[in-house]
Amino acid sequence: MKLIYGIAINNGKYPALIGNKTVKEYALWKSMLQRCYCNKYQVKQPTYIGCSVSDNFKSYSYFYDWCQNQIGFFERDTNGRDWHLDKDILVRDNKVYSEDNCVFVPREINAFFNAKNNDRGEHPLGVSFNKKTGKYRARCNRYGDSVCLGDFNCPEKAYTVYRKFKENLCKETAAKWRGQVDNRVYDAMMVWGVE
Fold first, then answer.
1. Which positions ≥6 away from 42 have C-beta within 8 Å?
2. What does the pLDDT average to over 30-47?
3. Model-level pTM greater than 0.85?
4. Cα-trace Rg, the chain
5. DSSP H helical ranges for the chain
């Protein structure tokens, strides 16, 4: 048996390849391990520094079997893309990939939680300074489109508007996917709040 990243085991119970094509479960497993244990990867994606994989998930055969029983594993979006393996919707800021923390979600939900607002500078999340108006602009992405929520005299007011919009959008997105995603995802999204 070969160790993957020096810690994980593929015992050969399930194939990693069929023909020249990597098996979906193996691709997910190897990618998860790479995010947690590959230094080169973490240099490019520092948000994964400190992440790890549970002892059970270090076994490819265990991970393979686990995938077969998960809501969303066999699903595809309208563009034919597989749903994403997510580790931190159920447990906010979670750093451990495990059977208790991971779920499969559509790209839309994953993107909602991965959205970053990198050009805000010193301002709160969702807020930027509009030089033309001399006011603080609240903006949020909604289903891939940037929505301007208005210009305000102070960054705190702009942030309050952003936060309310984002939290309502989370509930709206949860309702849209209710009955399709794991109930735990729906429940987590209904109580989620901007920090």
1. 35, 48, 49
2. 96
3. yes
4. 20
5. 24-37, 39-44, 60-68, 107-114, 155-177, 183-191
